[in-house]
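The protein record minuted underneath.
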Amino acid sequence: MVDNPKKMRRMGEPIFWLMGSRRRAGQSGIPARVAIIKLDRLGDLMLSSALLAGLRRAWPTAQITLIVRESLVEVAGLCPDVDEVIGAPVNEGSMMFDPQLGTYRGWRQQLVHWLGFCYRRHLWARRFDAVIVPRWDSDYYGAVPLAYLTGALRRCGASETVTPGKAMANRDFDQLLTQVIAGENGRHEILLNEFFLQASGIKSSGQPELVSWVKESDREQAAGLMEGAGVVPSKVTIALCLGANSAGRRMWPVESYARLCRTVFNLDAVQLVTFGTAAEKGLGLQLKSLLGNSVIVLEGKCPLKLLPAAVSLAALYVGSDTGTMQVAVAAGLPVFEISCHPVSGDPFWGESPGRFGPWAVPNRIMQPEKALAPCGQFCAAEQPHCILGVPVDASADALRSLLKEIGLRRVCREQGCKAECGLPS
């Protein structure tokens, strides 16, 4: 039974030769059919928007298929640079090597799972010329094996050697690729995605930027949704994200957000709209109990398809390192991020702003100066821990500085601002 990458390749190559997938080896130039496999969460998907735009710019005639996790199909369908989106059922931690067991956990089950997926979604019939797996870190979802199983002639991905953890978890995954990108992850994710363009022979068009996926019709629908929830168009809207999906360590206490907003904002001039999942609704309600009617709770009420449009109606994003933050960046919003990653930690760890922070927009990032014991180079806690070291007073000073930079001093509680803008005390 096939239970590792080497066996998969030994058995797969003769089959793909018989299917005709290996008889086009002399092809070059613009591929006719391309698949991008991006099984990560929302933030990583948004960070790939510049890559997708670069592929479309260089390959205008290619049929580009984007394969994402099923929960993100609707938002991925907003991308203007792909021709179709396919949702894949994702199993976390699948096909990863376990050094203690000396074998791959769940390989056979996931192999059957992916074979069934390729059959049901007619991936073999599409006869992809190229597949790109734009993930630099460990492949937790079996995206590289799926890329191989599509039968694509060219398969591009980051080497298993780019991080020590990946070298262990994805041992021999390079066997399944035809283009292996090597290097160190000592740069922002946007710049790492540029490597995949370069490997495809595509020259950079300058400074990469995230691409907004907002349609005007969606903006109108989102505006209606927000007004129905109590948002007043005449007030300045601030988008807040208090949760962090399943990463509790990224969550600053709601009480700290309340103190920050009460200290900085004139609550008569702003409305604080909280975004998140239905499971995070309690966070918004808690903030509302502390700050009153200036808080509009939208957790669980905004469909994912309308999230980019709804966030684009705000003037500023305040909150955790989340997918919503990257949606805000793509929309061009200034960002005030509260990060759990210590300043003294690994600058390019998976939760470091140096790797995943706001890109090419006005921003301020608040981090704990150092990790709290027993954490070291990064926060390893399940619940809020190192992030508790982010001080409210210093955060308020930084937020005032950002408001001044972006021309939003009129919503600030500072006496000078109130006198200047004629706002009530």
